[in-house]
Write a structure and sequence with these properties.
Largest sheet: 6 strands, mixed
InterPro entries: Caspase-like_dom_sf, Caspase-related_regulators, Ig-like_dom, Ig-like_dom_sf, Ig-like_fold, Ig_sub, Ig_sub2, MALT1_Ig
Helix content: 10-25%
Organism: Seriola lalandi dorsalis
CATH topology of the largest domain: Rossmann fold
CATH architecture of the largest domain: 3-Layer(aba) Sandwich
GO molecular function: cysteine-type endopeptidase activity
Number of domains: 4
Protein name: Mucosa-associated lymphoid tissue lymphoma translocation protein 1-like
Radius of gyration: 36 Å
GO biological process, one term: proteolysis
Length: about 550
């Protein structure tokens, strides 16, 4: 559309000028063009916190002004240029208004900045916007008559276009990131893949198989646990034997990793035989049908007649089986609780010792299966600890912690640990992992917890758990001199408390005041899983 603009003013003003001067001027007219957007912004799909530039280009008469808006009709701060750069934190719609000085304006197309809060680790450092597949579809086995859903996600600038294929043929109505068929039939089975493209490039997902089966043909459901419980013991400060350094960090790190997998974790340091037996008994009580139980030990140990023994910190020199804890008895007790998975991991030596002693008697159980032993070393061999980056660690636990979070069958995880340890030059020919198991199902430490039908037992475990992990409350102590000190506690391990003390009020006559916590407690009170220390506090 073209308009005329009279530069000499309105017609009335021009007539007035003509009467005064006796001449009639020729008005200068400017042709005003309609604003035309020659390039609209484009939608994009990016990871969280990715910087995105939206661009618009327009033509018109004179200087053009720009203002960007979001979908909630708010003006974008500093969004007055042709290019708008934003840090994408959430999915948002944007539009740009373009206007001239002649009261004309137009709007660009609405565009979406779609944000995917998913793994972006494989995104190239200098990514230019070509499609990058972040989520591939997964193989499916679907019961006939039920819903079939396949999903793939990709980053792209512009937003990628999706086209699904079955058995090499395009599915014309399937052009989104999710393919969904409400009632799958036999004809919906086959090999699926998706083409993902934009103006820069085209990428393809890996093909996946979809099987449509009758109800009685379905494979068994993926394994689940009704709960997960772990007991970790690290012995390092022995009364009559050489001390160790690695258990303190190994237990601490493994406890954190197991908590990420959904385990309730009890971690204990430096236990006597009596304390080890008491802790194991409490641990066994928390197990039940369907529960995953894991027992880990780091410290001195030995093997005798096929039995493995864990050495308590108060064991005499020399020690006998009755001074130690028999591992096979622990597994026997775990199986009696009808656990769905029983795992014992031992970062300890297996040197043959006390071969003349009578081995511990254990009544065999029915072969219920799903038991796993992970030994740091093989029979009649030692397990080593090393300095690794300024900290001490058991070599077995070092590689165990590296792989334990993986969603794989527990024996496969241990096989990876074995392979890594086998490649470690520090222990080549001196230490080799041994794995024994009776797994009947592909169970993983990362399996989800399903409590349906087991809520009563869960509530009992919850009550025991809260009692065992209850910390002492914060205390404020007032002394005769008027000084007030606040003492609080934090659990480093289940039987190790860290005490923090700070001076809150000095009092009217105290000039200088410092707090010192003694290394040895005055009084010790044994709680279910905690040793609570009361400390001397000194003032100066």
């Amino acid at each position: 559309m073209l308009d005329w603009y009279e530069t000499d003013g309105s017609p009335a003003k021009q007539e007035e000028n003509a009467l005064m001067t006796g001449s009639r001027p020729n008005p200068c007219r400017i042709m005003i063009r309609e604003i035309f957007i020659v390039r609209h912004p484009v939608s994009v799909c990016v990871p969280v916190n990715h910087k995105v530039t939206l661009s618009v280009r327009a033509e018109g008469t004179g200087i053009l002004n720009y203002q960007w808006f979001t979908d909630d009709e708010k003006e974008v701060c500093d969004g007055t240029q042709t290019d708008l750069t934003v840090t994408a934190r959430k999915t948002q719609l944007y539009v740009c208004r373009v206007n001239d000085h002649f009261c004309n304006c137009v709007f660009s197309d609405w565009v979406k900045v779609k944000v995917l809060d998913i793994d972006k680790s494989g995104l190239p450092v200098h990514w230019q916007g070509e499609p990058h597949i972040a989520v591939n579809p997964k193989p499916q086995t679907v019961r006939q008559g039920t819903k079939l859903t396949l999903r793939c996600l990709a980053f792209g600038i512009p937003t990628p276009y999706y086209q699904w294929y079955r058995n090499g043929q395009p599915l014309l109505d399937m052009t989104g990131d999710t393919l969904q068929i409400d009632r799958a039939t036999a004809e919906h089975g086959g090999s699926y893949l998706c083409s993902i493209s934009n103006v820069l490039e085209e990428r393809w997902t890996e093909p996946v198989d979809v099987d449509i089966v009758q109800t009685d043909q379905l494979p068994p459901a993926a394994p689940t646990a009704t709960d997960k419980v772990a007991l970790l013991i690290g012995n390092l400060n022995y009364s009559n034997h050489p001390g160790l350094m690695a258990p303190i960090m190994d237990v601490h790190e493994l406890a954190n990793l197991l908590q990420q997998l959904g385990f309730r974790v009890v971690s204990l340091l430096d236990l006597t035989r009596e304390e080890m037996l008491a802790a194991i008994e409490k641990f066994i009580q928390l197990l039940d049908r369907g529960v995953y139980g894991l027992f880990y030990y780091a410290g001195h140990g030995y093997e005798c007649a096929g039995r493995n023994y864990l050495v308590a910190i108060d064991a005499p020199q020399p020690y006998q089986p009755e001074n130690c804890v028999c591992v096979q008895r622990v597994m026997h007790s775990m199986q009696q609780r009808r656990t769905a998975l029983s795992v014992i991991l031992l970062d300890t030596c297996r040197k043959w010792y006390n071969q003349d002693c009578i081995p511990s008697a254990i009544t065999p159980l029915k072969p219920s299966g799903n038991t796993v032993y992970g030994y740091a070393t093989c029979e009649d061999a030692e397990a080593f600890e090393v300095q690794d980056g300024g900290k001490s660690t058991g070599i077995f636990t070092k590689y165990l912690n590296k792989h334990i979070l993986q969603c794989e069958k527990v024996t496969h995880v241990l096989e990876k640990v074995s392979e890594d340890l086998g490649r470690d030059p520090l222990v080549t020919g001196r230490q080799a992992v041994e794995i024994k198991h009776t797994l009947k199902e592909p169970r993983s430490l990362a399996d989800p917890v399903r409590t349906t039908g087991h809520t009563k037992e869960l509530h009992l475990r919850d009550a025991c758990w809260r009692q065992a992990n209850e910390l002492p409350r914060k205390k404020r102590l007032t002394f005769h001199c008027g000084v007030e000190v606040e003492v609080s506690f934090s659990a480093l391990f289940s039987n190790v408390l860290v005490a923090f003390a700070s001076v809150k009020t000095k009092g009217p006559k105290t000039q200088d005041c410092t707090v010192t916590l003694s290394s040895k407690p005055v009084n010790i009170y044994f709680l279910p899983n905690f040793t609570l220390f009361y400390y001397y506090i000194y003032f100066s």
